[in-house]
């Protein structure tokens, strides 16, 4: 039996949890513990009273084994839910029973309204066209974990630490069954002429998902589907240039960057159209306070007259600036860690040539996989706490701050090695690696240098020019595979293994187990078992999924010219990503709390920023590494320099040479031979090496100028593309017209509510003070003869007094006579 519960509140019955009795400490004295127990009982009784006062049906059962919790089940009455839905309706007239019969309240809408009742402050402000924020009492129950971690916060229910809506097993089973197959069985897909519709999720499925899980989850899958479809163009373009053997080609880079620009701007319009269809367009205008926000007190809004929580933006800004030292500390630590791993990888992979090299080359990968995610996870926890401490009044502001913090560190972790290879290792590797060897202790230097090549012992180091390509392939393939395992495989194993481990760790006596079984009624066993399993599942906020897609998008846009096939792998990966994310949400996490969303939020700006940075990196990489035709000079030394730097020369000299601008700069001169002992490596570069170093610096400077010029062109192109797409795809569209219609209905609803919806003539009559005139006096004002300066009382109306006007206005209108005489003959 499924009792159709709306929400489950998790209440801890552990007296020592979170909040001991004030002034009594954490001692184990019997009197102190008894007072703590009394505190928990009183808190639970007050919680139930608050829930029942809000017209909610309440009951409770024991929680999962070993958790010391009570599960409080909450269900709102149908009358209260319909009242809340009517309050939010922008229609001039309230929804009637027949309206609910024709358009019933969706499951996600119901859960969102009940969540609003549970979490809205008890002195909430107005968030809609109606005069109040709720049709009845609200509970004001933000869980303790959502509150800013400051000593000043007084938590009314400190033992209430979680709440979640139960899953709908029937819908989840049907959802996964439909999405596991290609959606080509859908009638809307089979009738489509677009072949891409056979591979993506149709809009009807997204609408159904929105009705059950809310706009946030549905908007994510709408974005992922749109992104998947958009990858077809860069995949075809990259395949063509790969078959032609033309990496780093300017047209390839222009295609990737141009595609990223059009993708971001077209999705901006696409999400607006979806928001209009789902009724969330311009949702930010009526955004309510964030659950967990706590002000310094109450104040009256001078504009609306509504009581609200008082909080100054300066305090949020000050707290945000105070978190910068923590951010720079993590960025410095992560940058040092990535650089250290990179140096180890270079020395082991490029310098060392001794026994066990095959296994030693795996050490940097193991270090990166084990240490970097730990730092990122620690920063994720710290960033959440810092963002809670900032105490943002709106959920959109909270998510924007958390997104910036998260992506700023992920940028270093994801792209740090590739940036080091592109702009440090390949340009300066022949100078830096010998210098690093000199700084190592003699024993470690001996272990590395005894088996190195003669080139290194003679004072130079031959860089691995293919390392950049190898790294990008490795990151594009292995990172997404390991990410899929961490997202789906690992949570699946935890869900299967963790409950059994907890049951063994917190096992009780056989008699106690029998009592626990007896407490559950026979018709409730299956339901309570499922709820207790969901209690131990993690919460999925659809945040890490956007971060994963942003990282993948960055690999493609920032470094796609290195490996033209990278979009194809992203295309294949995202086909399975859509299904795996659906499986994860349905089975490996709690049901997401429905939230109304009009867009993908701050992640849209992240994608736009990545596209902008892609214009910088793509243009500079093409300038540095694009193969160019060069012809053999007359000096044999020049040929020798080229051959020493891994530039393949034709034996017969019948075809032109191919090199890059960076290779040409590195070939300006060769480092001289070193007389230093072998264990010490090479001596500092001689005067001839400085010529090559200066040439490399000049080449990198020109690459920076090219990148800046590309960014300038990108900015202008983005403005033009946004304007053009808005004109072509948005203006005059059905979504645009529907949004304008809804805005008109919203204005009319507000006018009706204040009894101000009157004709313009009546509005002017009231504004001029004629509203209280008798019908006989009002009838005299139909013509010019009725306007009197004395009656109106405004000097500006003197022009309407015909009798007092000059004769110029009384004479014949010659223009009318001339118009009548046109075309007539004498």
UniProtKB/TrEMBL annotation:
Residues 81-99 have a biased composition (Basic and acidic residues). Keywords: Membrane, Transmembrane, Transmembrane helix. The keyword Ribosomal protein does not apply. It comes from the Eukaryota. Pfam families: Anoctamin (PF04547), Anoctamin_N (PF20877). Residues 210-692 form the Anoctamin transmembrane domain. Residues 5-129 form the Anoctamin alpha-beta plait domain. GO terms for cellular component: cortical endoplasmic reticulum; membrane. One of its GO terms (molecular function) is chloride channel activity. The chain crosses the membrane at residues 248-264, 320-344, 359-381, 402-426. InterPro entries: Anoctamin, Anoctamin_N_fung, Anoctamin_TM. Its main location: membrane. The keyword Cell membrane does not apply. It is a multi-pass membrane protein. It is found in: Membrane. Residues 81-103 are annotated as: Disordered. PANTHER family: ANOCTAMIN. This is DUF590-domain-containing protein. It comes from Rhodotorula paludigena.
């Amino acid at each position: 039996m499924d009792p159709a519960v709306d929400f489950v509140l998790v209440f801890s019955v552990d007296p020592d949890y979170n909040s001991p009795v004030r002034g009594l400490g954490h001692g184990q004295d019997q009197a102190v513990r008894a007072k703590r127990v009394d505190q928990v009982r009183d808190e639970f009784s007050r919680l139930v009273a608050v829930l029942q006062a809000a017209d909610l049906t309440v009951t409770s059962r024991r929680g999962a084994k070993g958790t010391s919790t009570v599960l409080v089940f909450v269900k709102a009455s149908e009358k209260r839910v319909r009242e809340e839905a009517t309050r939010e309706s922008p229609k001039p007239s309230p929804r009637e029973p027949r309206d609910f019969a024709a358009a019933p309240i969706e499951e996600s809408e119901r859960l969102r309204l009940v969540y609003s009742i549970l979490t809205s402050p008890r002195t909430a402000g107005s968030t809609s066209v109606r005069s109040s924020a709720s049709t009845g009492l609200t509970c004001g129950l933000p869980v303790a974990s959502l509150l800013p971690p400051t000593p000043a916060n007084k938590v009314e229910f400190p033992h209430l630490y979680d709440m979640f809506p139960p899953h709908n097993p029937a819908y989840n089973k049907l959802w996964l069954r439909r999405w596991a197959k290609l959606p080509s069985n859908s009638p809307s897909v089979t009738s489509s002429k677009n072949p891409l519709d056979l591979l993506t999720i149709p809009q009807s499925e997204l609408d159904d998902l929105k009705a059950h899980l809310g706009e946030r989850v549905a908007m994510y899958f709408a974005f992922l589907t749109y992104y998947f479809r958009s990858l077809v163009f860069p995949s075809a373009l990259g395949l063509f240039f790969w078959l032609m053997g033309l990496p780093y080609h300017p047209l390839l880079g222009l295609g990737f960057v141009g595609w990223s620009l059009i993708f971001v701007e077209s999705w901006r319009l696409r999400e607006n159209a979806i928001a209009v269809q789902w009724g969330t367009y311009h949702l930010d205008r009526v955004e309510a306070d964030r659950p967990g926000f706590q002000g310094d007190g109450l104040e009256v809004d001078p504009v609306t007259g509504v009581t609200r929580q008082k909080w100054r933006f300066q305090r949020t800004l000050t707290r945000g600036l105070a978190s910068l030292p923590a951010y720079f500390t993590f960025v410095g630590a992560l940058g040092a860690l990535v650089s250290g791993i990179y140096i180890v990888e270079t020395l082991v992979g490029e310098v060392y040539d001794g026994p066990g090299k095959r296994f030693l080359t795996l050490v940097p990968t193991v270090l990166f996989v084990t240490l970097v995610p730990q730092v990122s996870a620690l920063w994720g926890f710290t960033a959440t706490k810092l963002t809670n401490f900032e105490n943002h009044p709106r959920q959109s502001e909270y998510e924007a701050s958390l997104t910036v913090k998260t992506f700023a560190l992920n940028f270093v972790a994801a792209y740090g090695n590739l940036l080091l290879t592109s702009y440090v290792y390949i340009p300066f590797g022949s100078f830096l690696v010998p210098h690093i060897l000199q700084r190592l202790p003699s024993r470690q230097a001996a272990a590395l240098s005894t088996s190195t090549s003669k080139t290194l012992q003679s004072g130079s180091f031959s860089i691995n020019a293919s390392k950049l390509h190898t790294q990008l392939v490795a990151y594009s393939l292995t990172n997404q595979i390991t990410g899929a395992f961490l997202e789906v495989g690992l949570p699946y194993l935890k869900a299967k293994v963790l409950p059994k481990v907890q049951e063994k760790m917190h096992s009780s006596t056989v008699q106690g187990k029998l009592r626990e079984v007896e407490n559950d009624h026979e018709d409730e066993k299956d339901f309570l078992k499922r709820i207790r399993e969901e209690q131990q599942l993690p919460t999925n906020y659809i945040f890490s999924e956007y971060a994963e897609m942003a990282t993948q998008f960055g690999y493609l846009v920032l470094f796609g010219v290195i490996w033209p096939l990278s979009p194809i792998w992203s295309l294949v990966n995202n086909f399975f990503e859509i299904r795996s994310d659906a499986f994860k949400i349905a089975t490996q996490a709690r049901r997401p709390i429905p939230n109304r969303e009009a867009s993908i939020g701050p992640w849209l700006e992240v994608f736009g920023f990545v596209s902008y940075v892609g214009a910088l990196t793509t243009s500079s990489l093409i300038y540095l590494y694009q193969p160019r035709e060069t012809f053999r000079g007359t000096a044999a030394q020049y040929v020798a320099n080229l051959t020493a730097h891994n530039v393949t020369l034709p034996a017969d000299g019948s075809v032109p040479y191919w090199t890059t601008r960076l290779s040409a700069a590195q070939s300006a001169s060769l480092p001289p031979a070193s007389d230093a002992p072998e264990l010490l490596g090479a001596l500092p570069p001689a005067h001839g090496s400085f010529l090559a170093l200066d040439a490399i610096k000049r080449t990198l400077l020109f690459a920076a100028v090219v990148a800046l010029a590309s960014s300038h062109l990108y900015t202008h192109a983005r403005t033009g593309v946004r304007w053009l797409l808005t004109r072509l795809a948005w203006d005059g569209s059905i979504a645009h017209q529907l949004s304008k219609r809804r805005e008109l209905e919203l204005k009319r609803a507000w006018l009706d509510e204040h009894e101000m919806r009157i004709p313009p003539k009546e509005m002017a009559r009231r504004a001029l003070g004629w509203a209280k005139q008798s019908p006989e006096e009002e009838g005299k004002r139909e013509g010019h003869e009725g306007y009197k300066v004395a009656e109106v009382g405004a000097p500006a109306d003197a022009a309407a007094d015909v009798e007092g006007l000059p004769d110029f206005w009384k004479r014949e209108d010659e223009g009318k006579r001339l118009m009548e005489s046109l075309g007539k003959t004498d």
